[in-house]
Amino acid sequence: MIEVAEAHSMTVRSSVTQNLQMLCCGYNAGPSKVNAARMKGTIIIDEESFVHFIETGEIPDA
Hints:
By secondary structure, this protein is mainly alpha-helical. It contains three helices and two strands; from the N terminus they run H-E-H-E-H. It has helices at residues 2-7, 31-39, 47-56; strands at 22-24, 43-45.
């Protein structure tokens, strides 16, 4: 997924930052990272939603 994101001009981060707009996480995502993203108002999506976003430019409703 990192290569796909970078190929679509997205910046990939390994940690949650204040300016993070979207967090794509799998089934084993660390709860502290997910919670930090929620607290900052970051959009959280799974791999299926990420693929949909890449294909359509739209983020599916959670």
